[in-house]
Automatic annotation (TrEMBL):
Residues 1-21 form the signal peptide. Coiled coil: none annotated. InterPro entries: SusD-like_2, TPR-like_helical_dom_sf. SUPFAM superfamilies: TPR-like. This is SusD/RagB family nutrient-binding outer membrane lipoprotein. Keywords: Lipoprotein, Signal. Pfam families: SusD-like_2. It comes from Gelidibacter pelagius. PROSITE patterns: PROKAR_LIPOPROTEIN. It comes from the Bacteria.
Length: 483
């Protein structure tokens, strides 16, 4: 009997591992009878759901110092690295969600008998967003050979250098923009576009804005390509108003996943760093991003507390995530106009040496963010007349970077990437006795780890990636992270 049970467990593990490999490497293009519109919608939904998944709720939200989760979900906040199961699941779920579905759409829309370059171009934008998150999380990843197992026989996909990945993602977006600018909307997704309802002008702005995000991320890694791409982006339409925001409302299950995490277990409490920033500048987004505690105060939670300090912190009494972010019907965002205005402000300062123009763009970014959250007009005007809403000429990059961090809420993964790239807001190394230093000696983590499963199932290619990128540690920076 025991032998039978052992055999059943071994078989279950074997099938589970095969499912993982299928998600990572397979692109089931043989199923060409499936409507690519349904697959496209599914990929888009997976993309937005990913803004609240474990990569964010357990890792990026902590690393970005936006919040602290309770119970064992807070452990990554202590900068530990003992999360092999989570690293594995995040890696495989990213491939098994957005990437698997969108790769199938790309295959269908490029096949001879089902070719559709408009749909292909839109799908490429979604693919770039998915791959960008993956490579920003792990560094080198299977990109050119990822998701292509059964059709091309690539069982062990090679990992590609992040520089190559970024160059190719920018090229893909450039191609998509050129096609979509003059495309026929009837050839797109008239009834299956949950982001822009088939408005191709908005898709062009979205694709170009994403290209700008990637270009600015290269600023310290490949300044020449960054400058060239930024110039291209500024010559094409960009996101400018909140009507251009890439957002979606989750209508299935309990809706927005932050609702469950605010009302269920483990709960999430907002960070002291975020609350201090908002309170210190009388920012009206405070009441949007943060709920008051039982005493009517905004009461933040310090990131990185060791177990003893956390146990004495009265965690349950701290401020919850604001209702505007964490209600069932709250919108999920992957990109907003406010982010783009602030990227333009940074570019004007860094590339054009034009502080006056940077200040105009900076103010546009802040005001657009305030309007995004429907801040009362008088509160908005008061803040726009405050010192925080104008560049002071002392450390303008710090001001722009901090306001970007604030405006990126609730896209917490992008907030962590922004901090890694710019160093703003400044996250001090942990030296206090009550803070956990973890595996990084108190330094902000730089990436996720390749899991033991990936190391065992695709060993040669993973080791080659590690030899180029650096040790498989959470304090090894990805290629574009020079801060």
């Amino acid at each position: 009997m025991k032998k039978i049970l052992v055999l059943m467990v071994m078989l279950a593990i074997s099938f589970s591992c095969q499912d993982h490999l299928d998600d990572l490497r397979d692109n089931p293009n043989a199923v060409t009878s499936i409507d690519d519109a349904a697959l496209f919608t599914k990929a888009v939904r997976s993309l937005f759901q990913g803004t609240t998944d474990a990569s964010v709720s357990r890792f990026a939200g902590h690393y970005g110092h936006y919040f602290v989760a309770g119970s064992t979900a807070r452990l990554p906040d202590q900068y530990g690295d003992g999360f092999d199961v989570l690293y594995n699941s995040m890696f495989s779920e990213m491939y098994g969600g957005v990437i698997r579905h969108i790769e199938e759409v790309l295959e269908i829309t490029s096949a001879e008998d089902t070719k559709n370059e408009v749909r292909h171009s839109i799908a490429d934008v979604i693919a770039v967003l998915g791959y960008a998150k993956l490579t920003d999380a792990f560094g080198e990843i299977p990109y050119l050979e990822g998701g292509k197992g059964k059709t091309q026989g690539i069982i062990h996909p090679k990992y590609d250098p992040q520089e190559l990945i970024y160059e190719d993602m920018i090229a893909r977006l450039t191609s998509s923009i050129a096609i979509l600018k003059n495309a026929d909307p009837s050839m797109a997704y008239p009834n299956s576009d949950p982001i822009f309802n088939n408005d191709l002008n908005k898709w062009v702005r979205f694709a170009n804005s994403l290209r700008l995000r990637l270009a600015m991320r290269l600023r310290d890694a490949n300044n020449t390509l960054s400058r060239q791409t930024v110039a291209q982006c500024l010559s094409e339409p960009l996101m400018e108003t909140n009507d251009h925001n890439a957002s979606m409302i989750e209508t299935e299950g309990n809706g927005n996943a932050w609702y469950t995490m605010r009302t269920g277990f483990p709960s999430i409490k907002m960070s002291t760093l975020l609350i201090d920033q908002l309170q210190g500048t009388d920012d009206p987004r405070l009441s949007v991003y943060v709920s008051k505690d039982g005493n009517g105060d905004y009461n933040g939670m310090t990131n990185g507390l060791d177990d003893t300090a956390f146990g004495n912190s009265n965690f349950a009494a701290r401020s919850d995530m604001g209702l505007a972010l964490s209600s069932k019907e709250s919108k999920l965002y992957v990109m907003t106009a406010s982010e783009i205005w602030l990227l333009r402000a940074e570019a004007a300062l860094a590339y054009d040496n034009d502080p006056a123009q940077a200040n105009i763009l900076y103010r546009n970014g802040i005001e657009t963010s305030l309007n995004q959250w429907e801040v009362d007009a008088s509160d908005r005007d008061d803040f726009m007349n405050s010192p925080a809403a104008s560049l002071a000429g002392v450390n303008d990059e710090l001001q722009i970077g901090t306001q970007m961090w604030v405006a990126l809420v609730p896209n917490y993964f992008e907030g962590w990437s922004h901090i890694r790239r710019t160093g703003y807001p400044i996250i001090a190394d942990r030296t206090e006795a009550n803070l956990a230093q973890g595996a990084t000696n108190g330094v902000l983590p730089k990436r996720f780890l390749y899991s033991s499963f990936e190391l065992s199932s695709n060993n040669d290619n993973v080791l080659e990636a590690i030899s180029r990128q650096g040790a498989n540690k959470i304090d090894t920076p990805v290629w574009w992270d020079k801060n």
